[in-house]
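Why does this matter for the project? Reviewers at the last site visit asked to see concrete outputs rather than summary tables. In response, this paragraph embeds two records directly. Each consists of the residue sequence and, immediately after it, the corresponding structure tokens. Nothing has been edited or filtered.
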Amino acid sequence: MTQIYFYSGTADKLHTACRLSTKAVQQGLKVMIYSLDAALLERLDKLLWTFSPASFIPHSHVDDQLASVTPIVLGQETEQTTHCDVLLNLDDQCPPFLDRFERLIEIAGTIPKDKQAARQRYRFYQGKGYKIHHYKLED
């Protein structure tokens, strides 16, 4: 069963997504960052280029021909996705395909709308019997 990790209390979800995905890659895991919001994924794409001043965070879009050899892929779907260990969800809804991944990372921001959506996702996972690990962030 997929392990779920909730990180709450961040003022900058994209920055936190960069940190968490980088940490997963350093552990030898392949990460898919998911959202139905193409503009959000585009902002994240740009941030991944500049996030770390000392190194580049290798990533591509899920439909890119290099996706199978890239440790981080960004996308709105998983039909084309090669095996990934971690799904980092940046969407307001629960991803319908989360059982394909060993881990699911959820990030809850400090904006009331974001908190509410995160609470709904948390209750959904809890109701389905997933074990949830929760970490409170202090940005």
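We now turn to the second protein, recorded in exactly the same manner.
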Amino acid sequence: MKQIGDNTPDLLGKDQNGNELRRSDFPGRKIALYFYPKDMTSGCTAEACSMRDNYAQLQNEGMQVIGVSTDSEARHQKFIEKYELPFPLIADVDHKLADEFGVWGEKSMYGKKYMGMFRTTFIISPEGTVERVFGPKEIKTKIHAEQILAAKD
């Protein structure tokens, strides 16, 4: 998993509209790049709505929110429309970005093992280095944006 001080790629992936999304598209801004397992599920919806509800404050603090899951562009569009999300979602269908950040791996539910996304948020500096990592056990989906705001310094 990427650690504090690690460099991040400029090209992040394609958003819900099929457009390439780059870190350099947000000059002078930090990026809260949050990886989550799946659109329309309870925890992921709570996390996205926390980001939505605190989006103006995050933006005022110089931060751009970008969500990432392996869902398709079309599914992301539905998720954005249903919950009125004001930030882009990357369709990492081949989990390339998740692999690069080290958040794709074996998970287990009810004794069944499968590959999936570990809920993780990286705060990336305007220069492109990781400043803070929120791991799966640390993230509280309903108040995650508040966690980010509280840790901004």
